[in-house]
């Protein structure tokens, strides 16, 4: 069975995991999750991820991984030969996880007040206060990232890594929320422009728009949430010895 990535729309942070899977180039499927109807209006997705957040990732044997950092580290371990990840215990492994943690806590966290104001329909002084708070955090974080990158080509050096994939999925929110003039950060802007021209990033944008793009060869198509729940159930029965693998639908 090909792994399944459950990605959220609109503008989910799962964007980076789609890019990562495209860079990996191994078979996978996608399951589109509307972050309003599938998460708030239904309990079906909670059978995949009890906290009802995306992304989530179902592995080949039906195990489910949630949280971007865990999913990206899982993908990285499968892509060490491509430079997407590094051997555990190596200095490169530590640097990748350090960068992913910074992006997850500082960059992602800076957008939290902006998302809260938007999703709760706040107006007036409350909205202005949250936007001011988020903008202040993001200004500081962008300055820190600018200093980290310096004259490097990618976040970690001269080769792209999954930190870059995660970065583009979050950094694009500056446009969505109309905060930060990225021209004030030339190194970051250079990296963003390079990433936006990457075929995997363009593929992820097309997926979010609901198009049917042709990827690098690993993408095996979309699967509905109902179908994915059937796969999850079958995988559980196989692990319990109540169902033979050849009796399930082939999803490779």
Protein model, in words:
The protein has 252 residues and is of the alpha/beta class. The chain has two domains: 4-83 and 201-247, Glutaredoxin, CATH 3.40.30.10; 91-198, Glutathione S-transferase Yfyf (Class Pi), Chain A, domain 2. It is built from nine helices and five strands. Strands 4-3-1-2-5 form a five-stranded mixed β-sheet, sandwiched between helices. A hairpin with a 5-residue loop joins strand 3 and strand 4 (64-66). Helix 1 (15-24) crosses helix 8. The radius of gyration is 19 Å and the shape is globular. It starts with a strand and ends in a 13-residue tail after the last helix. The model is unreliable at 246-251 (pLDDT under 50). It holds the Pfam family GST_N_2. InterPro entries: Glutathione-S-Trfase_C-like, Glutathione-S-Trfase_C_sf, Glutathione_S-Trfase, Glutathione_S-Trfase_N, GST_C, Thioredoxin-like_sf. This is Glutathione S-transferase.
Q: What series of H and E elements makes up the topology?
A: EHEEEHHHHHHHEH
DSSP strand content: 5-15%
- Roughly how many Å apart are the termini? 5 Å
- CATH structural fold name of the largest domain: Glutaredoxin
Number of strands: 5
Number of H/I helices: 9
What is the structural class? alpha/beta
Strand line-up across the major sheet: 4-3-1-2-5
Mean pLDDT: 91
Largest beta-sheet characterization: 5 strands, mixed
Question: For the record, what is the CATH homologous superfamily label of the largest domain?
Answer: Glutaredoxin
Query: What is the CATH C-level name of the largest domain?
Result: Alpha Beta
Percent helix, as a range, is 40-55%
Q: What low-confidence regions span 5 or more consecutive residues with pLDDT below 50?
A: 246-251
Which CATH-level-2 architecture of the largest domain? 3-Layer(aba) Sandwich
The gyration radius over C-alpha positions equals 19 Å
Shape: globular
Tell me the count of domains: 2
